[in-house]
Amino acid sequence: MDTETQPTERDRSSRSSGSEQPSDPEGPEERSRSALAGRITDWVPGGRITVTLLVLLLFLLLVSTFVLKPFQIPSGSMERGLRIGDRVLVNKLAYRFDGRPQRGDIVVFDGTGLFGHGDYIKRVVGVGGDHVMCCDREGRIRVNGQSVDESAFLYPGDGPSTVGFDVVVPDGTLFVLGDHRSGSSDSRDHLGSPGGGMIPVDRLIGRADWIVWPVGHATHLDRPDAYARVPDAEAGTQTGTGAGARAGTGAGTQAGEGEGVQAGAVVGGRAGAVAGGPFGAVAGGARRSESADG
């Protein structure tokens, strides 16, 4: 009897599958990308480290341009909350997508031709349509008939204002004041100037949301509750004449030089990146001072 077994169908299939070549785990597209990355790192001096730093710098530049930007506080006009030398992060997207400035927000804006030259940081007291006046019988500012207790954030010893004013804020603009009222040049001082001391909303750079330096003073800048009870402006409010019905001459302030804010840091221009110190170093270019006379 022939004892040699004939190969079965299963034997043939297993034998043929074992002889097949293993598939390439990387397709031609992946190999092409790896080769391109290798050529770039070989071409750039410093290899992977340099490429990584360049990508990081590009990322910081994009963030600074479109999302967050650091600014340095050069004056005491927003004390006690913001001190000279503080670095704040400004949220540039806060009002970009249908967001509207709210009373109590701390905003950075381009004051060129309005307050002087450069960028300024102030607190929003009135928005478009608001009737803002000073002062009631207790010396408080009134917004749309509601007295506002600002004692929680005003500079110690300061009152809401040393001069009276009575204004209606035009639509699309803001009435802004510094927290250090006796040391701030703000909307009160420019009521008789072109624009009436109001800040067009399209001049806003963003909302200051964080103090990031020094570390011991780092905090989130919350909107105070003082304005929470202020009612919305009534349509067609006609108290006062335009933006400046009654205002003293020069709002009793003597703000020193350097009233504006300064861009926090520059790397090869106005990137706002960090190098050699938290939000304050300069590398590859001179820092552009954005301060202005108070």
Structural account:
With 294 residues, the chain is α+β, with helices and mostly antiparallel strands. It has helices at 9-18, 28-43, 48-66; strands at residues 68-72, 87-91, 106-110, 119-126, 131-134, 141-143, 146-148, 165-168, 173-177, 199-200, 204-213, 219-220, 246-247, 262-263, 266-267, 282-283. The longest helix has 19 residues, at 48-66. The chain is elongated, with a radius of gyration of 30 Å. The relative contact order is 0.18. Residues 7-20, 238-257 and 265-294 have low confidence and may be disordered.
Characteristic key phrases:
Umud Fragment, subunit A; five-stranded antiparallel beta sheet; single chain; alpha+beta; 294 residues; 3 helices; disordered C terminus; elongated; 22% strand
Annotated CATH homologous superfamily of one domain = Umud Fragment, subunit A
Low-confidence stretches: 7-20, 238-257, 265-294
Our measurement of the CA-to-CA distance between the termini, rounded to an integer number of angstroms, reads: 115 Å
Helix content: 10-25%
Provide the fold topology:
Blueprint: H1 9-18, H2 28-43, H3 48-66, E1 68-72, E2 87-91, E3 106-110, E4 119-126, E5 131-134, E6 141-143, E7 146-148, E8 165-168, E9 173-177, E10 199-200, E11 204-213, E12 219-220, E13 246-247, E14 262-263, E15 266-267, E16 282-283
Parallel strand pairs: 15-16
Antiparallel strand pairs: 1-2, 1-14, 2-11, 3-4, 3-11, 4-9, 5-6, 5-8, 6-7, 8-13, 9-10, 11-12
Short summary:
By secondary structure, the protein is of the alpha+beta class.
